[in-house]
Amino acid sequence: VFWFRARCGFAEFAFTDARCDLRDAGENATTRRRLSEAFGVSQVAVMRQVHGADVATADPAVAPEADALIVDRPGVAALVRVADCVPIVLAATDRPVAAVIHAGRKGMMARIASATALELRAHGAGPLHAWIGPHACPRCYEVPEEMAEEVERVVPGTRSVTSRGTPSVDLGAGVTAQLRELDVEVTDLGGCTIEDERFHSHRRQGPAAGRFGAVAALREQAS
Ligand SMILES: [Zn+2]
User: Fold this and answer.
1) What's the pTM value of the predicted model, to 2 decimals?
2) What is the C-alpha to C-alpha distance for residues 15 and 136, in angstroms, rounded to an integer?
3) What single DSSP character describes residue 210?
4) Which stretch of DSSP H or E encloses residue 176?
5) 123-166 tens-digit pLDDT
């Protein structure tokens, strides 16, 4: 079920793919259990994503309304679910603290990635590394002209064009700029959800689209 898996400092994280549908991970304990077993943690914490800029701490007992979840203790993994929006894993290279982030167009405009990086620094993190997962790419993510302009005003550098020459938004460029502004090292893993059927895509599949995602957890020892 894991498309990409890696370690950084105390953090271990993975991006899933369409072999696993995480859409019901909030309500369905079986979905969470399958994921926690595959990832090797005792529990997975979820959030109710609302395209905002609130950062919460991962707690398997609650599903807070938030768009970023911080993990600060071993055993519990934090999960972000997407189907075109940008999934981001953020990890401190020197401290046991990490986060998963849900950054779509609205969340990017609300600076959710920046808010999460600042929150990790408040947890004592020094150097931070971010991994950007598969999302709707600017060649595919067509939006109305006025929307492209509005997003560009709020997040400069995001105005782009689709492969058909129509206006689009470059979500990856936007969140990368926001993170680099805070001295976060960024690795873009690539992959377009609209073009690549290995991932779930709301644009390509409509309301029936499933969700893939990213999980992050802390291990007892740094790698
Ligand atoms: Zn694309």
Assistant:
1) 0.98
2) 15
3) -
4) helix 171-180
5) 999 999 999 999 999 999 999 999 999 999 999 999 999 999 99
